[in-house]
Amino acid sequence: MLERIFNLRALGSSARIEVIGGITTFVTMAYIIVLNPAILSAAGIPAGASTVATILTAAFGSIVMAFVANRPYAVAPYMGENAFIAFGLSTLAVPITWQMRLGTVFVAGVLFLVLTLFGARQWLAKSISTSLKHAFSVGIGLFLAFIGLYETGIVVSGIEGRPAALADQKAGFLSNPAVPLKIGHFEDPKVLLAIGGFLLIAILLQRRVYGAILIGMVVVSVCGGLLGLAPAPTRVAALPFTGQYSLSPIAFKLDLVNIWSLALAPVILTLLIMSLLDTTGTLVGLSVQSKSKYDLSADLQRPMLVDSISCIFAGLVGTSTSGVFIESATGIREGAKTGLAALVVGLLFLVSLFFIPLVTPLQSLGFAYGPALIIVGLLMLSSSKHIAFDDFTESVPAFATIAMMVFTYNIANGLTAGLILSPVMKLAGGKYRDVTPGSVLLGVLCLTYYLFGLRH
Q: Is residue 163 part of a domain?
């Protein structure tokens, strides 16, 4: 049956190889079970229900990938998009509830699907320069790293600890410090645990230990528990969809009525472009690593279709946009070539539904999951080597993207700034052939973000 469904022999694989590859991929990406709910809790989404939604989305996307695309690609909620949903939208001038945030995820997913069916996703992706694509990755990586540094207390607000005497008596609050950020309290054992966790994960990654991020989080939380800084799990297993792990508080609670405003249009556009670039880049990268007997990069339509469907599913059950995980490369290195590996990943996520109590304490421990955010951000910085810094038509939009993402604490600001400046710099530099209809369209759409006062 497996041979008939996944065409194992023809692709030079076996059930044993695919199972090992699937287990390897799951272990390396299981950290998302902890990180995604921890991040989304900042948007007010209940952690227990969010954990179930995260696992279900990963299981659904991976299993659909197995049968629809027959690729060894695992799917789960994206890092970066979740931070944008939770933190990037907190500075919106208009109030946005978590129900509205889920509504934007759903609408973005529907747009992904439409663009995929009409073949426009790859057209739009090709309209964005290579340097700018990688600048998005670098900017999001630094954004995640900054969140991790702040959540762990390694970096704190410059206003922290300032005496009340420095308060602006007229305004009634502390005046802005000359330095907005400063180093944290390194005598705090939680900060020291976070630093130790970062070093441990980095060493494990250097030693190519599978599941390094998850192992690091668990070790740090255990150490925190021994020091009395972290609660122990109250139980090992629990039935999903009951009690605090019920999905009812968030499933199908998305708001599709109040999101249709000009102010929220950049939010949907940002999610659209982020997912488009993440998926396209990840699929191409994984296809290069695969040693399948056919060219996996030749037909990206089905994997993109699965990605679109999983995004719609994510919005419905109550989590952030999802897509193909780059960690699938670990299973591919073990020899996985077919959808059987993705099926194994999906089934393992379903099994993990019964062991949520084991990871629940980690979601409230900044010193445990913060180092993982920093590491994920660090891994994304590798894209900087693909930015053409010696060409101002490439480097200026890239720099604006990175700087605006990090220093305005908003991914949308960087993404829109880069897309506006890209065609402008190409025209100014006389590189008219590099200006495509797609780049102009994206630039004009992003320009409305600033012209109509929608920036935040």
A: no
The domain of 274 spans 2-158+182-451
pTM: 0.81
Residue 171 main-chain phi, psi, to 5 deg: -80, -25
Helix (H) or strand (E) run with residue 289 in it: helix 265-289
Contact 118, 409 (CB under 8 A): no
Q: How far apart are CA 28 and CA 326, in angstroms?
A: 10
Q: List 75's β-bridge partners, or say none.
A: 324
Q: For 110-126, how does the pLDDT look when each residue is reduced to its tens digit (9 = 90+)?
A: 998 998 888 777 787 77
Amino acid at the residue 286: L
- Residue 276 sits at the vertex; the CA angle it makes with 272 and 282, to the nearest 5 degrees, is 145
Residue 347 lies in a domain: yes
Element (H, E) at 196: helix 189-206
Residue 140's closest CA among 447, 340, 389, 398? 398
pLDDT digits (tens, 9 = 90+) for 63-118: 999 999 899 999 999 887 888 888 877 766 567 888 999 998 999 899 989 988 88
Rg of the chain over all Cα atoms, to the nearest angstrom: 22
Bridge-based pairing state of the strands 181-183 and 155-157: antiparallel
Distance between CA atoms of residues 413 and 433, nearest Å: 27
CA dihedral 212, 213, 214, 219 (to 10 degrees): 80
Q: What is the dihedral of CA 381, 77, 274, 139, to 10 degrees?
A: -30
- Whether 147 and 411 have beta carbons less than 8 Å apart is answered as no
- Would residue 177 count as lying in a domain? no
> Could you tell me if residue 212 is inside a domain?
yes
CA distances from 444 to 121, 330, 377, 408, 418 (A): 18, 40, 30, 21, 12
